[in-house]
Amino acid sequence: MKSLTAAALALLAATPLAAQPYGYGPGPGMGRGNPELRAERFQCRQEARARGYRGPEVRGAVIACLEARRPDLARILQCREAVRARGYVPRTPEFRMAVRSCRFGA
């Protein structure tokens, strides 16, 4: 009886995790950052792969797709790349401030 109850609870606990879209579930790196940007980037990546792009071509296609769909989100990616190229370490307060100043032109 106890094993049946435990199995039912495990099944019920796992069901919401399986229903969540990509990028929003548990795990390292999940749930961090801008969920809107992650969702748009995922859709653009899927479109690029559907068109047959592979490897480095996908990244360029994703950026072009974001620039066409959501220029504000593309600006975030460009600023993050520029700040990373200047040597800032991601997920630090200095990195976030540099990205913010790049985005808003301060």
Quaternary class: single chain
Task: Determine the mean pLDDT.
Answer: 81
Instruction: Write down the secondary-structure element order.
Output: HHHHH
- Helix content estimate: over 70%
Give the percentage of residues in beta strands.
under 5%
If helices are DSSP runs of H or I spanning 4 or more residues, what is the number of helices?
A: 5
Major β-sheet profile: none
Could you explain how this protein is built, in words?
The protein is built from five helices and no strands. Residues 15-28 have low confidence and may be disordered. α2 crosses α3 (56-69), α3 (56-69) packs across α4 (71-85) and α4 packs across α5. The termini are far apart. The protein has helices at 2-19, 35-50, 56-69, 71-85, 93-104. The chain has two domains: 19-69, no CATH class; 71-106, no CATH class. The chain is extended. With 106 residues, the protein is mainly α.
What is the topological layout?
Elements: H1 2-19, H2 35-50, H3 56-69, H4 71-85, H5 93-104
Helix pairs in contact: 2-3, 3-4, 4-5
Keywords:
106 residues; mainly alpha; 5 helices
Short overview:
This protein is mainly α and 106 residues long. The protein has 5 helices and no strands. The relative contact order is 0.08.
